[in-house]
Design a protein that fits this description.
Helix content: 55-70%
Order of helices and strands: EHEEHHHH
Distance between the termini: 62 Å
Shape: flat
Strand content: 5-15%
Largest sheet: 3 strands, antiparallel
Number of strands: 3
Number of helices: 5
Length: 195
């Protein structure tokens, strides 16, 4: 983060301040970091599941306004286009095509909504989001290490929750672990039976 900058322009100064740097005036201009890097405090597993649930709520709540926004923008755009009832577009009635396109814009907004919600969650509390990301990476390492081998799957022995998406508490994690071991045991038993 330390660097020699010879330009005294306002843009460089503003950029340096936004990074938490201050200028030391002397023979040459240097930018020195004034505050230490932000290290999030560790999150317990119970707190992790609560934060994860909050983030999912933000994502779901953002989907509806984004869908309405997409529907409104699509409706405004397609309502302003000229419609000739005698002329078809790719063999379809223009009103039907514009109506379908407007609905598609609403669905697209609904699909994009969770990403917008995640961005707002990150902007609302960046340190909490960083701590959640670190703990989530650790959680997925646990899931990857403890999940059953998909080779043991069959119609009578389906693979239970491969990515651990339904885990929302420590009790649910323990239940997930039991299901993974049971799946592996059943698959191993059936493989041994065939030999």
């Amino acid at each position: 983060m330390l660097g020699l900058l010879s330009s005294g322009s306002v843009g460089v100064r503003a950029y340096g301040r936004s990074l938490g740097l201050s200028r030391v005036v002397g023979m040459n201009r240097r930018w020195v970091q004034t505050d230490a890097p932000v290290i999030p405090e560790p999150v317990t597993w119970n707190r992790f599941f609560v934060l994860r649930k909050q983030r999912r709520l933000w994502e779901r709540l953002a989907a509806l306004p984004c869908a309405l926004l997409g529907l409104g923008v699509g409706g405004a755009i397609f309502a302003s286009l000229p419609v000739h009832p005698q002329q078809t577009f790719m063999g379809m009635d223009p009103l039907l095509l514009f109506g379908g396109s407007t609905l598609f814009c609403g669905v697209l907004g609904f699909v994009i909504g969770p990403s917008v919600g995640r961005v707002f969650y990150r902007l609302g509390s960046p340190q909490r989001a960083l701590a959640l990301d670190l703990k989530e990476a650790e959680f997925f390492r646990h899931v990857k290490a403890n999940r059953s081998d998909p080779m043991f799957s069959s119609a009578s022995n389906p693979l239970p929750d491969f990515y651990g998406e339904k885990i929302n508490s420590l009790a649910a994690y323990r239940k997930w672990l039991r299901k993974q071991r049971e799946h592996e045991r059943k698959g191993t038993f059936k493989l041994g039976k065939k030999k």
